[in-house]
């Protein structure tokens, strides 16, 4: 079971992103404030859960969380400010949308651009250590996956229903055949150099 909090007695928001390593689509981020006692015992790093479990947990997180929010940054913005800054910007946007102000931010990873007026703690592999970060990872991933499934209906030749924009062999092959589309991140290496 993941740790329910970093510091007892304060309002903590866990933050995580999804889609940083993708060739296409926005980067999504979520911020989640969980009660210190919750019933989300199956919480874990979203990458270790099946899509079915993630989607079930998403409903339960939204129900049990004291506050939650999801935000994204577009491929055009990613190209302008780079993926690392875009990830931080998406996290900031999700924190902006919270209906409750946290007193501390738990950030998945080792770097973060400070959010005005709220201290933060960076936690490497935080989504497998703290419940609120795991909850944020699940929301970010499921919302991004849903978005890519919608895009797939308009651009089926990139197989986004299965790869969600990640750099699979099939995705790279489709870019070679069809060229990149408006949703691709043009500053990324879209075609493998092997």
What does this structure look like?
It is a single chain. The protein has helices spanning 51-64, 75-81, 83-96, 131-154, 160-163, 169-178; strands at 12-18, 27-33, 67-73, 104-108, 120-123. The protein has 194 residues and is of the alpha/beta class. It has a single domain (12-178), classed as Ribonuclease H-like superfamily/Ribonuclease H (Nucleotidyltransferase, domain 5, 2-Layer Sandwich). Strands 3-2-1-4-5 form a five-stranded mixed beta sheet, with helices on both faces. The radius of gyration is 17 Å and the shape is globular.
Task: Provide a short characterization of the protein structure.
By secondary structure, the protein is α/β, with parallel strands linked by helices.
Compile the SSE list and pairings.
Layout (H helix, E strand, L loop, with lengths): L11 E7 L8 E7 L17 H14 L2 E7 L1 H7 L1 H14 L7 E5 L11 E4 L7 H24 L5 H4 L5 H10 L16
Helix pairs in contact: 1-4, 2-3
Question: How many individual helices?
Answer: 6
User: What percentage of the residues does DSSP assign to strands (E)?
Assistant: 15-25%
Helix/strand/pairing class, anyone? alpha/beta
Just name the CATH architecture: 2-Layer Sandwich
Helical fraction: 25-40%
Q: Distance N terminus to C terminus?
A: 42 Å
CATH topology: Nucleotidyltransferase, domain 5
**Largest sheet, spatial ordering of strands:** 3-2-1-4-5
CATH class descriptor: Alpha Beta
List keywords for this structure.
5-stranded mixed beta sheet, Nucleotidyltransferase, domain 5, alpha/beta, 6 helices, 5 strands
């Amino acid at each position: 079971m993941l740790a329910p909090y970093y510091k007892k007695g304060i309002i903590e928001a866990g933050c995580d992103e999804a889609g940083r390593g993708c060739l296409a689509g926005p980067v999504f981020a979520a911020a989640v404030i969980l009660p210190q006692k919750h019933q989300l015992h199956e919480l874990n790093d979203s990458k270790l859960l099946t899509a079915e479990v993630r989607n079930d947990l998403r409903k339960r997180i939204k129900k049990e969380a004291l506050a939650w929010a999801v935000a994204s940054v577009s491929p055009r913005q990613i190209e302008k400010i780079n993926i690392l800054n875009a990830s931080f910007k998406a996290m900031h946007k999700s924190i902006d949308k919270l209906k409750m102000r946290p007193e501390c931010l738990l950030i998945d990873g080792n770097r973060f651009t400070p959010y005005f007026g709220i201290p933060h703690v960076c936690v490497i592999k935080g989504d497998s250590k703290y419940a609120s970060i795991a909850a944020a990872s699940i929301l970010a991933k499921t919302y991004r996956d849903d978005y890519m499934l919608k895009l797939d209906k308009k651009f089926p030749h990139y197989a986004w229903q299965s790869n969600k924009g990640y750099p699979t062999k099939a995705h790279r092959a489709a870019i070679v055949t069809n060229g990149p589309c408006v949703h691709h991140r043009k500053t990324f290496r879209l075609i493998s150099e092997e």
